[in-house]
Amino acid sequence: MVQHLLKGAGGLGLDVGAVQERQLRRYLDELLAWNRRVNLTAVTRPEDVERVHFLDSLTVAAAIPEPLRAGCSLIDVGTGAGFPGVPLKVILPDIDLTLVESVAKKTAFLHHLVEVLDLKGVHILTGRAETLATDPSLRERFDVAVSRAVGSLRVLAELVLPFCRLGGRAVLSKKGDISQELVEAAPALEKLGGEVIELRPVPEEVLEGQRVLVVVQKVAPSPAEYPRRPGIPAKRPL
Ligand code: SAH
User: In the chain, at which residue ranges do the beta strands (DSSP E only) sit?
Assistant: First the structure.
């Protein structure tokens, strides 16, 4: 089964051991089984799930510098069925992972998944990023924040950067031509204390579709007024 994935991971310089391979196989089975009852993914062919969800999630690991990668605290904002956070946790078992998702049916799946995969050090929070980011135990506490398919960069700046500690970074998964999106995000990034330090293209031979990781360094604290109330960041982007 997970052949495509193993080959792609090799291309990223990531090592997938036997335990991890088994965990990813089980993840695939559980995702497809739960997907009949809970709307978790539109992608249902196993080989597509491997590429579009698992491998795409793993590309994020390459954008986390070595010294941080092993044991960092990482938060995934709007994780859905666990992407990219859970595949990252499988491949980097020592990270301390926090998953944020507002839809309770999805976090029910995540609780089940973490149990059957026997993952340790995973915290699942059912709630809105806008609300959770005001909690002192979460605000500016994470080395790395990641997010995929949740919003435009200017919206993500407000939803994600408040969780990053000073000197930490956000790694945001994007697809296609993002030059306009980057320009539009500049004011929001500046307000939230972020600075784009790297645009890291995913090699087409690993995964097609002009994928790029936007790496944002947290260079100044996020002002207390952000994020605004739930729904406002997406409705009236900065
Ligand atoms: N990251 C996953 C899911 C993307 S769909 C993936 O790439 O497959 C976007 C998810 O983010 C949805 O599950 C939605 O419920 C969640 N979401 C969107 N805005 C959110 C917010 N403000 N706080 C928490 N979760 C949010």
Answer: 73-77, 96-101, 122-126, 142-148, 164-175, 194-201, 211-218
